[in-house]
Amino acid sequence: MPETASTKKSVRILPESLINKIAAGEVVERPASVVKELLENSIDAGATDIHVTVKNGGKDLISILDNGCGMNETDAQLAVERHATSKIIDENDLFRIQTLGFRGEALAAIASVSHFELLTCEDENSGATRIFIKGGYLEQMGKIGFPQGTKITVERLFYNTPARLKFLKTTATELQHIQQHLVQKSLAHPHIHFRLTHNRQLLLNLSGGQQLQTRIQQLFGEEFKEILMTVKHEETYLQYSGFISFPSKPRTSRRWQYIFVNDRNVKSPAVNHGIYGGYGTFLGKGQHPVFFLNLKIDPTEIDVNVHPAKTEIRFRNSQLVHTILVDQISRALKDGASRRFFGREHSHSQMSRTEISGQIELPMEEALTLESQYSGMTFPKRKKRATESRELPPRGALKGKHSAELSTFAAEKPLTEISPVEQRRQNYASAAILEASDSTPDNLPEHGIRNLRFLSPLPQIPQEIRVLGQFRKTYIMAENDAGLLMIEQRALHERLLYDFYTEALQKKEVALKSFQASLLIELSPQGSVLLEQSLEHLELCGFAVSPFGGSSFAVNTIPEIQHVEQVEKVIRGIIDRLALFGKRSQAEEIIRDICEVVTTNAALPAGQELSLTEMGILLAQWEEMGSPMASLKDVPLLVEFSTQELERRLKR
Ligand SMILES: Nc1ncnc2c1ncn2[C@@H]1O[C@H](COP(=O)(O)OP(=O)(O)OP(=O)(O)O)[C@@H](O)[C@H]1O
Ligand SMILES: [Mg+2]
């Protein structure tokens, strides 16, 4: 047999320090894992106030201060040893764990790859203990003045494991991981006051004593306004409570999905598939629900000891858990839908606030109130009268063939008489025959396209056009008294949003979404220079972006029409535009570019199926705006086939 590395050398027992480093590799992957472990210890210690302080994404310093039960000197000394825990005693305990920690590994693992200081006090009369460990070796121990609770400070993480150190990512990335743990823990424990300070900047300050609903609001602001419904289920085997999104409001990412089992945030295929199963065909391909679900189950029914980072659990009867969730979630969604449908005597906004019990109520929009040198700027406005818009296409004159087409349309199109509301509704209903499964205007919030709500008051019935249907999921087919119209739906939506957004901008009333946990973006050096030069313009447009060290930026607010999932893409898109035109003195142009990038991304995606109601609303809003004929890119929004032309071509 050829000699390999393993056959050459004799078997030997590894030294303790190396064993610790290997074990630490499993527990401590990056600064965020230290934060996670220390947070869990503080929570297990019954803390109601936890303050996490980090420097440079935790690479230089992580410190966690809590007001939990603390430790006496003997326990403190033991706590930093491997396999030392107060949380389990024997094997039986391993299968009924009620705490987040149980292995007695974390502190020893962290202390073996850092400079580690523990200050802890169980009883102020007996004084506090200080222990300092460097790379796993005890350096100092003594008495110190410190109030009840514990403070652990970890500096120079991985200083003695260079290979690990090399794998650390940028400050922004590491900080994002840390934030994510804070978000998870704070959702699982809304009664606890959490703070996160980074490089002396307070990033999170979540007051304690809250319910889950308020915590979601603290963290995500307006993001989930009007999209979540309460769910609650109680039976002996399994209880759960929390919030799930209405089926009509799916997301394109799984990012906002939180499962807590006995207050531990976990990944669980059984729960996950159960929830998706409950949504069933409500969800299309690539669509994902938002959920914050708290499950309670007898601890003997789960095994939490299946993953080194304790992020997974196994259910003894996962099939049962799955079945309960599929049944109950699907029932809750159907109940929610029928409650919405039958509550029609109320207006939509009333319904969404009062009739659907438990729907999260979040505060009203903040208006952007910025005084600046740009306040006198002009933007294309929403036109009120049709004639105006035809005379004055808002984004530059239409050229050549297009303008000819448009003016023909304008000249041939007589104004239709405005029919009474009832009759208009009937027209609308007769059009609905073309699309058997379509919704009526009254249950719109269930089916509404995101962003349409921004054009308020929401007109539902176009007055001069009747929707006939949709062609290739791209064009709205409609008729007016002059003939047949094909309107490009995406370009139309983009145009509506643009005009709405710029009008709000001009009035300094841009509605905002703000985040408690800033979104961090890492840019190239060139990108960061460009962005830095445009921070003021961005702020006018509703983006609060601030430099975050190096070429990282923190985004704290975005305009409400912007989808959260696309923030990074939009900021990068804006930078591309800025780069394209080089340094420009014209602030107006820069703002126009920002508005275009935002609305292009906020508009409905290509090839989206629309209901007759939705198409009706788009056209009604278009009319409301004065029926502009040009898209944002100065090409026609629609083509018209006049009745005369059709007849001529058909040789009638
Ligand atoms: N912030 C704290 N307040 C009070 N006691 C603490 C704190 N942190 C740790 N301890 C004590 O130190 C012990 C060891 O902590 P450590 O995190 O190493 O292990 P564990 O939490 O028991 O298990 P695991 O390795 O799964 O986290 C704990 O069992 C607990 O008794
Ligand atoms: Mg622990």
Explained architecture:
- By secondary structure, this protein is of the alpha+beta class.
- It is 37% helix and 20% strand.
- The chain contains 23 helices and 22 strands.
- The strands form 5 sheets. Strands 5-4-3-6-2-1-7-8 form an 8-stranded mixed sheet. The chain has a 5-stranded mixed sheet with strand order 9-10-13-11-12, with helices on both faces.
- Strand 16 and strand 17 form a beta hairpin.
- It is elongated.
- The N and C termini lie far apart (93 Å).
- Residues 37, 40-41, 101, 106 line the site of magnesium ion.
Quick gist of this model?
The protein is elongated, with a radius of gyration of 30 Å.
Under CATH, the topology of the largest domain can be stated as Heat Shock Protein 90
Terminus-to-terminus distance: 93 Å
Strand order, sheet with most strands: 5-4-3-6-2-1-7-8
Proportion of strand residues: 15-25%
Mean pLDDT: 78
- Given helix and strand content, the structural type is alpha+beta
Radius of gyration, taken over Cα atoms and rounded to an integer in Å:
30 Å
Comma- or semicolon-separated keywords:
single chain, 652 residues, alpha+beta, Heat Shock Protein 90, 4 domains, eight-stranded mixed beta sheet, five-stranded mixed beta sheet, 22 strands, elongated, binds magnesium ion
Describe the secondary structure blueprint for this structure.
Layout: H1 5-8, H2 16-27, H3 31-44, E1 49-55, E2 61-66, H4 73-79, H5 91-94, H6 106-112, E3 115-121, E4 128-134, E5 137-144, E6 149-155, H7 162-167, H8 171-188, E7 193-198, E8 201-206, H9 212-220, E9 228-234, E10 238-245, E11 257-261, E12 264-265, H10 269-279, E13 291-297, E14 302-303, E15 314-315, H11 318-342, H12 348-355, H13 386-391, H14 400-412, H15 421-432, H16 444-447, E16 466-471, E17 475-480, E18 483-488, H17 489-506, E19 512-522, H18 525-533, H19 535-540, E20 544-547, E21 552-559, H20 567-581, H21 587-602, H22 612-624, E22 638-642, H23 643-649
Parallel strand pairs: 1-7, 11-13
Antiparallel strand pairs: 1-2, 2-6, 3-4, 3-6, 4-5, 7-8, 9-10, 10-13, 11-12, 14-15, 16-17, 17-18, 18-22, 19-21, 20-21
Helix pairs in contact: 2-6, 3-8, 8-9, 10-11, 17-21, 17-22, 20-21
Bound molecules: adenosine-5'-triphosphate (ATP) and magnesium ion.
